[in-house]
Amino acid sequence: MYDLVLSKMDAYYPLSEACQQDLMSLFKYSTIKKDDYLLRMGTVPGYYYFIVKGLFAYYYIAANGDVIIKKFFAENSFVASTSALIEQKPGLFSIVALEDAEYIRFAAKEFRDLFRKHHDLAMFQINYLEKNWIVDKENGEISLKYETAKERYIQFLETYHDIQGRIKLHHIASFLGITPTQLSRIRKDMDF
């Protein structure tokens, strides 16, 4: 099962056998029930997670109480409150299971300590962050500012085509920054 994590890492940067062995000593398999939290807003995170099975929402609660979903994470994804991990400060985001799920966790401090020992692991981290937290984030910010709700919904359907049937409509609306009623109108206009 840990081979899943290693092969996903390897896709970003090839890892040496020694690095893989050190990583496997950090990996811990676990399960979580639907609606339980991997991480709650306001806590200092200590782990990175790799999703083996299931679906998670990464979200923020605005001052007015609105839930704002930043991203969905499904099988073969890494998830963490990255900025809070780096700064070792209470995070602004929560990570909640939208389905019963299985995951592998690994302690952030021990993982980051391996960067000094394994250059290849540091290169994995750089490549992963560049792709998933810089390039993708920048595109999402542009989308929110300049695209209509309908255009954002179409982009959602393209981006999350593999898992869209597993996500409730109110979660999709939260991700798009619109109300469920607005999403219903968009879907009606598109003959859904």
Automatic annotation (TrEMBL):
Pfam families: cNMP_binding
Transmembrane segments: 46-63
Superkingdom as given in the UniProt entry: Bacteria
InterPro entries in UniProt: cNMP-bd_dom, cNMP-bd_dom_sf, RmlC-like_jellyroll
Coiled-coil region list: none
Protein keywords: Membrane, Transmembrane, Transmembrane helix
CDD domains listed in its UniProt record: CAP_ED (cd00038)
Domain Cyclic nucleotide-binding: start-end pairs: 11-132
Protein name in UniProt: Crp/Fnr family transcriptional regulator
Organism: Chitinophaga nivalis
